[in-house]
Structures are given as structure tokens and as C-alpha cells.
TrEMBL record:
VWFD domain boundaries: 10-161
A Pfam family it matches: VWD
Record-given protein name: VWFD domain-containing protein
Native species: Oreochromis niloticus (Nile tilapia)
Family annotation (PROSITE patterns): VWFD (PS51233)
Length: 161
């Protein structure tokens, strides 16, 4: 039971329905095709920024993962690193992208972070951000560990439901 609680508090998920389960706190829905910051933080002077955009169906149609200024984009079933299409296993110095069962996984070697997703026709129906350790940094965005209430206030005041 304790292990499940630990993993849950270090995992943020979003689904094609629009549901977002942040690192901490209750799940909520985001029904918009505007880009949203899923999470943003800096750890050991390495910056991480993950943004998502949903299509009208609710599926994620674009995910942008920037770690240490290296930009990886998931879009239309393709993986682009620095605007170049890559296939897996992709294993440069700072990040590894590989097949993980029915999922695809990106694991950073600079941050205690991995991003796992499931692609379907029309987009991505599941995206999971996992932290391998507790971070002592402020995190913002929809998954934000310390700013979930603030993120929800911003969403509500913008009229997005």
C-alpha cells in the first residue's frame, strides 16, 4: 500500500477524455484545444517544460517536451527531436526513447523523469509523467506539485471547464 501511495504522488497522468490526475490532489477535466503547460520545473539547473494541446476529440494532438533546451515533439504519430524525425530505440546522450510494451517511453538522463504515452489513430490517449524522486523545487502547470490550486483557479477564472 505504501508503495502505491509513493508512486501515485510522483506520477501525473492525462487521458484522452480530458481528465488530468496531478502529482497530488484530485483529478479534474480540461476541455479546451488551447496549449497548456502540463508541468514546468528546474532541477539541478536543468529546466523541464512539458506542454500539451488537445484536439476536438479530446485526444492529445501535440506534446512538446523540452529538457535542457532540447525540444522533443510528439505529433501525428511522429517523434521529432530538434525538428528531426527519430525512430526508436533513440539513444543519444541525454534522453532515451524506446518502445515499452504498447507504450512509448522517454527517459531523461539529466533529470529523474520519464514520460510514457500511448498513441492511437488521431492522437495520444494516455500520457504519464513520472518523477523517480521527490523534487525540492516549485513546479507549475496542470500537474504542478505545489501549485495545483493556483492552476485550477487560473483555469476557472479563464472560463475553461
Amino acid at each position: 500500500k505504501l508503495l502505491a501511495i509513493f508512486l501515485k504522488s510522483n506520477t501525473c497522468r492525462t487521458f484522452g477524455s480530458g481528465a488530468v490526475q496531478p502529482f497530488k490532489d484530485s483529478a479534474f477535466y480540461v476541455r479546451s484545444n488551447c496549449p497548456f503547460t502540463l508541468t514546468h520545473f528546474t532541477h539541478n539547473r536543468v529546466e523541464c517544460d512539458i506542454t500539451t494541446r488537445r484536439g476536438n476529440s479530446g485526444l492529445l494532438v501535440q506534446v512538446e517536451i523540452i529538457i535542457n533546451k532540447v525540444r522533443t515533439v510528439l505529433q501525428n504519430g511522429s517523434i521529432l527531436v530538434e525538428d528531426k524525425s527519430v525512430s526508436f530505440p533513440y539513444d543519444p546522450t541525454y534522453q532515451h526513447i524506446f518502445q515499452y510494451g504498447i507504450y512509448t517511453k522517454l527517459r531523461s538522463t539529466l533529470l529523474p523523469l520519464s514520460v510514457t504515452w500511448h498513441s492511437v489513430a488521431g492522437g495520444i490517449d494516455t500520457l504519464k509523467v513520472e518523477l523517480e524522486q521527490e523534487l525540492s523545487t516549485d513546479m507549475t502547470g496542470l500537474c504542478g506539485k505545489y501549485n495545483v490550486t493556483g492552476a485550477m483557479s487560473s483555469i476557472s477564472s479563464s472560463g475553461l471547464h
